[in-house]
Design goal:
mainly alpha; rod-shaped; 0% strand; 159 residues
Length: 159
């Protein structure tokens, strides 16, 4: 995930630098007798406006990125489960639809996502996921594919 928002020290330093640059420009105008009253307002207004817009843009981009990353993490997991199930050639289109509306299977998928993100623990583990469904049912076969995917992830992490 890319970070857009910088530490607050960065924005404070940027504000200081822009004040110094605008101060130098105002001094230049003063010594060349071109200084007007509006230039003094610019000395204070432009650095605040510039840094404010910069800070606001970074904050907005960070919020958008955080939201997108959160959704993509779940979407990537579901897509990899979908690919694994398609590669097994055990499921029909109707099976995918039935699994989508099965609340028990969907809850198990949420547990699988938790395991995928955080690893196994006493409460959430692959053995419990497999015990929830009969291995001869569509749900059981699908959960087998999910557990295989989880085991691959755990093996890749340990290597």
């Amino acid at each position: 995930m890319k970070r857009y928002k910088k530490p607050n020290k960065f924005y404070a330093l940027l504000l200081l630098i822009t004040f110094v640059l605008m101060g130098g420009y105002t001094l230049y105008l003063h010594f060349t007798d071109q200084l007007e009253a509006m230039d003094i307002w610019n000395l204070f207004l432009l650095p605040l406006l510039f840094v404010g817009v910069y800070f606001g843009g970074d904050t907005l981009l960070q919020k958008i990125t955080d939201k997108r990353y959160k959704n993509n993490h779940e979407d990537r997991f579901l897509e990899s489960v979908n690919v694994k199930m398609r590669e097994s050639n055990q499921f029909l289109v109707e099976d995918f639809r039935r699994l989508q509306i099965n609340p028990k299977f969907q809850e198990s998928l949420k547990m699988a996502l938790y395991i995928y993100q955080n690893g196994e623990n006493e409460i959430f583990n692959c053995a419990k996921l497999l015990k929830k469904f009969d291995s001869k049912t569509v749900e059981g076969k699908a959960m087998n594919c999910v557990v295989e995917l989880l085991n691959e992830k755990i093996e890749n992490k340990s290597v």
